[in-house]
Automatic annotation (TrEMBL):
Leading EC class: oxidoreductase
Pfam families per the UniProt record, alphabetical: Ldh_1_C (PF02866), Ldh_1_N (PF00056)
Transmembrane segments: none
Coiled coil: none
Protein name as annotated: Malate dehydrogenase
Family recorded in the similarity comment: Belongs to the LDH/MDH superfamily. MDH type 3 family.
Active site feature: H192 (proton acceptor)
Binding annotation for NAD(+): G13, A14, G15, N16, V17, G18, D37, N112, V135, S136, N137
Amino acid sequence: MGEYKRPVVSVVGAGNVGEHVANLTAIKELANVRMFDLARKDGDKTYEIVKGKALDIKQMASAIGCDVEVEGYTVTAEGDGYEPLEGSDIVVVTAGFPRRPGMSRDDLLSKNVGIIRTVSERIAQYAPDAIVIVVSNPVDVLTYAALKLTGFPSNRVMGMAGVLDTARFKAFLSMELKVSVKNINAYVLGSHGDDMVPLLSVSNVGGEPLTKLIPENKLKEIVERTKFGGGEIVSLMGTSAYHAPGASVVEMVEAVLNDKKEIAPCSVYLEGDSAVHYEAEDICIGVPVKLGAHGVEEIIKLDFTEEEKELWKSSVSSVKSGIERIKELGLI
Ligand SMILES: NC(=O)C1=CN([C@@H]2O[C@H](COP(=O)(O)OP(=O)(O)OC[C@H]3O[C@@H](n4cnc5c(N)ncnc54)[C@H](O)[C@@H]3O)[C@@H](O)[C@H]2O)C=CC1
Ligand SMILES: O=C([O-])CC(=O)C(=O)O
């Protein structure tokens, strides 16, 4: 009596994306939520914003009749205050700087990798059995860093990108074709950057190939808009997107907590026969995986067309160069 037996989702970095992850997890009553963030100083005053956000989300849940616990914890950049990670089933990492207009995601690497290092060490210390979903950018490289720094098996560390890129692709296709997003089957794989790979060969609407439904030039435009979908929002808002990213993370959270065996594109570590199939080794990059209670339960091996293979190779080499950079800097 008196204790809730719900799963626990912790969110480290309760900024724009983190608070939307917390909010949606609460609205869907998927789990109790624990939010972690730094204190903010304003003159003499120190604000514990994360505690306020958690209370606000708890009260929002109450207003709409959702039963979840939501708690906020102030941590330090040095890694103090992470004890409440204990017992987390999933830890979502959204701590880090977002890009501003004119920046690429890779420009965030040197600033964000230090944050990921501290957070990964604390996850390993307090939540050694958790599944980790990395969101901070550049996400493929930072997912690799989190995998190495936690020392977790590769099925328990994944990056969120492909679900978001695919959602953007489907949104643009549905705007063009005036058809429900539910009838669009599409995948965007590869790195979460300018080199991402929208897979036209397997994308279809109600079974009909995209190439048959949309003229070549228009389809090219939609693919380009998808590739620069994050940048389009950064240039409109001055900071990066958070509604669609938050929802994309929660799609993955739900697949794991409800053991859905859902196939979704996620950034995961390639090794063994998946590394052979995708001709890329010792790298985290977006491929379709089966998500369930054990995290990444299977890596689906799709065949690419010759054109897609070329795009894939550029994707692999851009992630590889990010990984080399953090290795050279001694950051992992
Ligand atoms: N993978 C993807 O598809 C996406 C990735 N992102 C990335 O997610 C990250 C977060 O984006 P936003 O939420 O928009 O940024 P934000 O600035 O609104 O939130 C980041 C939060 O992290 C916190 N933080 C910074 N250092 C910390 C530390 N050492 N420990 C704990 N918390 C810390 C900040 O105080 C802030 O509240 C960015 O790196 C962004 O590029 C954003 C959208 C999509
Ligand atoms: O564009 C950004 O920097 C954030 C992000 O990864 C996205 O929205 O796709």
